[in-house]
Automatic annotation (TrEMBL):
GO terms for molecular function: acyltransferase activity, transferring groups other than amino-acyl groups. InterPro entries: Acyl_CoA_acyltransferase, GNAT_dom. PROSITE patterns: GNAT. Residues 9-170 form the N-acetyltransferase domain. The keyword Cytoplasm does not apply. The keyword Protein transport does not apply. This is Acetyltransferase.
Length: 174
C-alpha cells in the first residue's frame, strides 16, 4: 500500500523525511497520556523506527500511516496496533499534530479510510480503541464513525497524580 486517497486527505506510508514530524509528536509531553508514553524518544530511535516502517503488518503487528492533506502537508498520524490476524482484530489510534488542524474533518476522513482499509484489505472483523473518559473530541470522532462504547475501565491510567477512567470502544464489521 502506497497511499489511501480520500476527498480532502490521504494516508501514506512513512518516509525517512518524516523524521522531524514524528519526533515532534512522540516528544510532545502534553499528549503522552494518549499513548502512555513515559520518556522522550531520541532522534536515533525514531530514525531506526522509520527505517523499519516498511515491514509487513503481519510481521510487526502494527502499521503507522501519515495523514496528509491534498497538498501533501503532513497533518498527523494514524495507527493500527496489536494486529491480531487469528482473531481478526486490531487497535486504532489517531493524532492530528496541530490544534489549528483539529475539528476540520481530517480525523473523520482519515479514520474512515483506515476502517475501510482494515475491513476490506486486512480482512479484520473488528477494530477497537481506548479513550480517556475526559477526551470528548476522540469520543465524538470514534462515535461518529460508528464505534460503540462497550466498557469502562475504572482508574485505568495514572496521569498527573490521579487515576483516570478509560472507555473501550469497538467497531464490528457489518
Amino acid at each position: 500500500m502506497k497511499t489511501l486517497n480520500g476527498k480532502y486527505i490521504k494516508l501514506r506510508a512513512l518516509e525517512p523525511e518524516d523524521l522531524e514530524f514524528v519526533l515532534e509528536i512522540e516528544n510532545n509531553e502534553s499528549i503522552w497520556y494518549l499513548s502512555n508514553t513515559q520518556t522522550p524518544f531520541s532522534r536515533f530511535v525514531i530514525k531506526q523506527y522509520l527505517e523499519n516502517a516498511h515491514k509487513d503488518i503481519f510481521e510487526v503487528k502494527q502499521l503507522r500511516l501519515m495523514i496528509c492533506d491534498i497538498n501533501e502537508t503532513s497533518l498527523g498520524l494514524i495507527d493500527i496496533f496489536d494486529f491480531d490476524f487469528k482473531n481478526k482484530r486490531a487497535g486504532v489510534g489517531i493524532v492530528i499534530k496541530d490544534a489549528k488542524n483539529r475539528g476540520k474533518g481530517f480525523g473523520d476522513e482519515a479514520l474512515q479510510l483506515l476502517v475501510n482499509y482494515s475491513f476490506t484489505h486486512l480482512g479484520l472483523h473488528q477494530l477497537y480503541c481506548n479513550i480517556s473518559e475526559d477526551n470528548q473530541a476522540s469520543i465524538q470522532l470514534f462515535s461518529k464513525i460508528g464505534f460503540k462504547k462497550v466498557g469502562l475501565k475504572k482508574d485505568w491510567n495514572f496521569n498527573n497524580g490521579t487515576f483516570n477512567n478509560e472507555y473501550l470502544f469497538q467497531l464490528i464489521k457489518q
